[in-house]
């Protein structure tokens, strides 16, 4: 994705085969991670995606979770699955050309953010002083930030 | 206006009673007069532009206000983004979690 074009049909994004495969794969992983949220067992990525609503009151936090969590998970899974589905049709060269309505673009922004949060947690990015390993996961994390920012600038004008 | 004075008085009464009898649950009586707040906490992953956009699109803040609150989160570690009833604040916190912002609610202790 080098730039995002505003067209009469919506925002147009072009992903190379490698980019489309990568994004589809991480989006799929987030959907699967979230689907298993009930056995979170202290998983830092799930803790970050589904945080407590109350900071100092475990009982209130638990009740808040009981009332809001299912809907939150469903929404996040639907967002990630939306990305996977949009990247399925490919050109002959394997590239993906996606055209997003304003509403779809907003759903993408939120889901790209979820993926970054999960990767950030995996990379141990817990505060502004964290120094993540400069590995492939970090490269994906940075690239997703770039795509998200491009999309954000197209949506927020 | 009435709410402010009442609030102060009820708090004093509540504090006194809570000290004298821990088991008396006065909270349900005091709650309607005492506001709740939604706090957004600093986060090393969420981009500044994204947070500004969330504040604008969800809370309807103008660009300057949204940026001010974002910077407050960034520099001070947190910012209060809404005040009101507990139910409203729970809705806001849940919405923030939908956007991936780290938010909590609590009783306003100022």
Describe the structure.
The complex is a heterodimer of chains A (157) and B (110). Chain A is globular, with a radius of gyration of 17 Å. Chain A has 157 residues and is mainly alpha-helical. In chain A, helix 1 packs antiparallel against helix 3 (58-86), helix 3 (58-86) packs across helix 4 and helix 4 (102-122) runs antiparallel to helix 5 (136-155). Chain A is built from 5 helices and 3 strands; from the N terminus they run ββαααβαα. Chain B is built from 5 helices and 3 strands; from the N terminus they run H-H-E-H-H-E-H-E. Chain B has helices spanning 2-20, 27-30, 48-59, 63-76, 86-99, and strands at 36-41, 78-84, 103-107. In chain B, strands 2-1-3 form a 3-stranded antiparallel sheet. The chains are: A mainly alpha (157), B alpha+beta (110). Chain A binds chain B through residues 48-56, 64, 67-68, 71-72, 75-76, 106, 109-110, 113-114, 116-117, 120, 125-128, 130, 145, 148-149, 152-153, 155-156, and chain B through 42, 44-47, 49-50, 53, 56-57, 90, 93-94, 97-100, 102-106.
């Amino acid at each position: 994705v080098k730039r995002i074009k505003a067209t009469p049909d919506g925002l147009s994004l072009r992903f190379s085969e490698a980019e489309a495969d990568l994004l589809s794969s991480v989006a799929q992983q987030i959907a699967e991670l979230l689907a298993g949220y009930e056995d979170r067992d202290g998983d830092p990525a799930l803790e970050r995606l589904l945080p407590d609503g109350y900071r100092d009151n475990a009982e209130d936090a638990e009740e808040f979770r009981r009332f809001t969590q299912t809907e939150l998970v469903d929404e996040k899974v639907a967002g990630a699955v939306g990305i996977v589905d949009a990247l399925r049709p490919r050109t002959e060269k394997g590239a993906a050309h996606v055209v997003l309505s304003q509403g779809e673009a907003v759903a993408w922004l939120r889901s790209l953010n979820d993926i970054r949060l999960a990767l950030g947690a995996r990379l141990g990015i817990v505060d502004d002083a964290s120094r993540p390993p400069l590995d492939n996961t970090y490269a994906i994390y940075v690239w997703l930030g770039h795509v998200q920012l491009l999309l954000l600038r197209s949506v927020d004008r | 206006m009435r709410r402010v004075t009442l609030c102060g008085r009820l708090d004093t009464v509540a504090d006194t009673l809570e000290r004298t009898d821990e088991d008396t649950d006065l909270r349900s009586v005091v709650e309607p007069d005492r506001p709740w707040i939604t706090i957004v906490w600093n986060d090393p992953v969420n981009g500044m532009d994204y947070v500004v956009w969330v504040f604008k699109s969800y809370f309807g803040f103008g660009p300057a206000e949204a940026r001010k609150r974002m910077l407050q989160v960034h520099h001070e570690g947190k910012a209060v983004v809404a005040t009101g009833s507990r139910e409203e604040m729970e809705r806001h916190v849940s919405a923030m979690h939908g956007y991936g912002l780290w938010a909590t609610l609590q009783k306003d202790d100022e």
